[in-house]
Amino acid sequence: MALDIIPEWMSHLEEEDMVFIKKFLLASGSLKEIANQYGVTYPTVRLRLDKLIQKIQAGENSDNDPYIALIRNLAIEEKIDFATAKLLISQYKKTK
67-91 as b/e, with b when 16 or more CB fall inside 10 Å? Predict the structure, then answer.
């Protein structure tokens, strides 16, 4: 059965995230195996997985508002700091 619609939580992910998820599944969830595939340490892969989990959770908790999801993802990806993200989201919610 093919998916006709991409789940909402997946729509906020980048292609790089999807590749990581695929590799993770094919490695049966072995972070050690993923670390070997990427040529990095286990803690590096664990951090990558933690950020991916946060990104998925942020997408689900964004009240279906694309702007809030974008701000949260920028914070998770460390493109902006969390304090700035909170301020932007707070100010945005005041305008609604």
Answer: ebbebbbbbbeeebeeeebeebbee
Report which secondary-structure segment, H or E, holds 82.
helix 82-95
Domain boundaries, the chain: 15-61, 65-96
How far apart CA 69 and CA 71 sit, in angstroms, is 6
Q: Indicate the pTM of the whole model.
A: 0.67
How do residues 68-84 score in pLDDT, each as one tens digit? Answer: 888 888 888 889 988 89
- Cα angle at 39 between 38 and 45, to 5 degrees? 60
Helices (runs of H) and strands (runs of E) counted in the chain: 6, 0
